[in-house]
User: Which sequence fits this backbone?
């Protein structure tokens, strides 16, 4: 299939670097002689036909901005066959031959269904602060989210030491502990609770007991996870019931999604955006572009969200060693 026009959209949770990726896709597409259409508000805008043609000037001065100039949405209707049929009709009506979708797990599930049901070439660009997509070492936005969390936790450490308190700090990550593990190591946390490993309250208690004579402040990093009983508040309460130690809770929340992307995220987004355009022109479809060990690669789109991305076991062991 000859491709002369492509559409680009952002979907799901925003991540720093999405704009860098949009810029790369648009300018790479134009350099390859393509017409590039921006689609506003994710899959909702796709179904509604909210398309606009983009030129090089349209993406000027956005590489440093967080969020997404195309806006984003979580479209429940797109999860239905009828919604995807509406989207396919809008794509045809706007003379778009292929799509580049920027997002994460849910975004790629929708893109895979759209491609299979309506024979539309689709390439996924991994952009999620959770870093939970299989097939790429890093996702766009992850590095910025980690650095944002570190910046704020360093400040909390100051007040924890001044008041000799224990802080339980909950970071984002969906159902994975990638953010928590990196942030915990980088901030010298005394304990890191992640969904991939059982939370060992006995280890926390022994740690506190061992430090009682010399150290009265502690930082416990908790991945938000989706397992009952593993939130920062629940863990803190269980520990307090066992040893009576008071605590403070800080949930960093959506602050981790905002802000200007780091250099690493800007460069990664730029590489993956241009690579996505080239892969479409080479005839690829239903794949996610990614970076593994510094090299660009592709992974079947379905594998990116169905295969589990393993946590770094060496970092788990290192965190236990250094918290002793």
Assistant:
């Amino acid at each position: 299939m000859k491709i002369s026009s492509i559409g680009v959209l952002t979907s799901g949770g925003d991540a720093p670097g999405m704009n860098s990726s949009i810029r790369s896709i648009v300018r790479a597409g134009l350099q390859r002689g393509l017409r590039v259409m921006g689609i506003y508000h994710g899959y909702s805008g796709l179904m509604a036909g909210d398309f606009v043609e983009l030129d090089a000037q349209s993406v000027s001065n956005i590489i440093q901005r967080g969020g997404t100039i195309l806006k984003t949405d979580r479209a429940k209707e797109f999860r239905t066959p009828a919604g995807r049929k509406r989207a396919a009709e809008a794509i045809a009506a706007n003379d778009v031959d292929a799509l580049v979708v920027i997002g994460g797990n849910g975004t790629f599930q929708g893109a895979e269904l759209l491609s299979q049901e309506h024979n539309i070439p689709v390439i996924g660009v991994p952009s999620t602060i959770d870093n939970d997509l299989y097939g790429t070492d890093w996702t766009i936005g992850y590095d910025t989210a980690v650095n944002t969390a570190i910046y704020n936790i360093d400040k909390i450490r100051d007040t924890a030491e001044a008041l000799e308190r224990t802080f339980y700090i909950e970071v984002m990550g969906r159902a994975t502990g990638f953010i928590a593990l990196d942030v915990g190591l980088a901030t010298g946390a005394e304990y890191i609770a992640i969904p991939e490993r059982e939370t060992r309250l006995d280890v926390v208690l022994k740690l506190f007991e061992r430090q009682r004579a010399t150290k009265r402040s502690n930082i416990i990093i908790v991945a938000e996870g989706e397992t009952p009983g593993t939130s920062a508040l629940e863990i803190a309460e269980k520990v307090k019931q066992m040893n009576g130690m008071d605590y403070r809770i800080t949930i960093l929340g959506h602050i981790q999604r905002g802000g200007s992307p780091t250099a690493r995220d800007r460069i990664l987004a730029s590489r993956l955006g241009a690579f996505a355009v080239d892969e479409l022109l080479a005839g690829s479809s239903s794949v996610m572009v990614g970076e593994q060990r510094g090299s660009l690669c592709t992974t079947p789109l379905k594998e990116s969200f169905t295969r589990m991305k393993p946590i770094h076991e060496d970092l788990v062991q290192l965190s236990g060693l250094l918290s002793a």
In short: The chain has two domains: 5-141+261-306, 145-257. The first helix runs from residue 18 to 31.
